[in-house]
Structure formats: C-alpha cells, structure tokens
Amino acid sequence: MTPNDDASSNTAMPPSRFRLAIDGNVFGWASGVSATAEALDAFHAAGGRLISTADHYAGGRSEIMIGNWVRSRKARSRVFLATKIGRHPDAPGLSADDIVTATEASLERLQTDHLDLLSFDGDHPHTPLEESLAAAAELITSGKVRALAASSYSGARLRDAGRLADENGLPRFRAVFSPYSLMTRRPVESDLLPAVRALNIGIFARLPLANGFLTGEYRVRSDVPESTMFADAAAHVGRDGFRVLKALEQVSAEQNTSLAACALAWVRSKPNVIAPVVRAASAEQVAELVASADLVLEPHQLMALDRASE
User: Fold this and answer.
1) Can you spell out the DSSP letters for 39-69?
2) What HEC string does 197-219 produce?
3) Nearest to 92 by CA among 132, 128, 121, 116
4) For residue 293, is pLDDT > 60?
5) How far apart are CA 144 and CA 86, in angstroms?
6) What is the pLDDT, as a whole number, of residue 232?
C-alpha cells in the first residue's frame, strides 16, 4: 500500500486523491457527540475519506461515535475505516483469541460488517507473530477485514513479519502507522523507512503536527495545555523547536498559508507516506487542516525545512 495506489482497483486501498486522514483519538474525549459529527461532516464534505481510530480510544467511545456518524449519514461505502487493536482492556493483546474478540467488538461499535484496515497496535513479543498473522488471515478470508497493518513497529519487526508471512502463506502488513513530523524524523528515517521501502509498503504519519507544536501556538511551556494529549508538545519548546518554527514561518509566508499546512505538506512529500493522520476536534479545525490537502511545497522550501529539522 503506497501513496500511488489506486483506490478503484482494490477496496483495501485508501483513496489516494485526498492524502489526509482524520484521527479518531480525540473523539469521545476532547470532542463530544455534536462536535465529532460536525468534524466528520466537514472532513467528508472536503473530500476526506480515511477515518483512523483504535478500539481503546476513549474506552471504545471513539469507535461508537464514528459508527453512529457512518450509519446516520449512510456513508459506509464512501469512507475507509481503519482501526487498531491490542490495547483494549477486554482484549489487551494479540493472541488469536484477543484478535478475534477485539475485531468483533470493533465491528459492533463501528456498526459495519467489515474493516478496511485492521492494525496491530504495538508490538506484543510474548505472542508469536505467526499466531497473530494466522488469526488475521481467518478474518480476511471471512471478509471481516480487508487488509492488515501495524502500528508502532520497528523496522526489524516489520521485516520479521514480512518474512514469516511469506514463509507461511500468511497476510503481509500493507502499511504501518508511526509518528512522523518535522520534530520526530530520526526514528522513522533511520529505522522505519529502509524497512518499508524493502517491503514496498506505506506509512500513515501519526502526530504530523507534533502534538500541536508545529501550529506555532506553543512558544513557551506554559502555553501547552495540561491535557496529556499535548504533553509531548512541551518537549519541543526550545532551541531546536524554534529553529523549525522559524523555517516554517518563512515557508508559510511564501505560500500564504498556515504553519500547520506547510508542516503537513512536508510530511506528504516524503517517500512511502500514504497520508498524515491529523487530529481535529471541531469543524473549524478540520477546515484549517484540509486546506493543506492540495498544497505542494517548492523544492527549496522542502530543503529549508529538511535543514532546520536535521
């Protein structure tokens, strides 16, 4: 699953013409029922199709709210639903039993008969990968899951999974979810990118705005909200972070757009990135983010951001 895949040729592929996904992390927590519906309405109206969540987000409420929205809008055939399993208290691992239990529960909460993309959420080394992949294979054969992905896996573990899948006739991971932004380049570029290139899969870039730091709203630590959702943003307040913000400010002035739009365009420009996965708790926030969907930075602008974030 790479950025150039054509959604029309395989229902397991996300739409490629709109390279932005919405993150259900805030739904049911920072975003209530009405705000969630309005955010999803705005995202869908702008052309967004890929909705990413996890079974443990807000204890399952994120999936419930997304499922209610999909049902009420009769939108199932027009959206690409991706969820992650492996951390819900009722199915906290990736054993065969946990995978089946978690998937059935997600299907119920999302009010759908299939998941377009099911991700293993975090590596669970105490469970053999063969067992997890075999359980996923049965779900794919049954039609309940269309494709498999991984979240927060190392490059080495992705290679292991690819080898085991090929040796045993099991499903391969089609994509990987990983934090990736101007502030979190090294783990992806030194470890993950070589593996995904070798495996010919794509990356969904989570936290592409570095927990909000790359919006430019947080200039001192006291600016950062106390919510744990933004805790990591405070770590970027300092010389390195300000160097990146200065470069973003120059690029955004040249493009006459926001810092966030430029930060997202930088992520989309990177090899094997399928789409940034953005948090938006309201329709207003969605409008700001979808404005970046068609933004393409000039080569000298990308180079400036690369230098500032090295």
Assistant:
1) HHHHHHHTT--EEE--TTGGGGHHHHHHHHH
2) HHHCCEEEEECCCCCCHHHCCCC
3) 121
4) yes
5) 17
6) 74
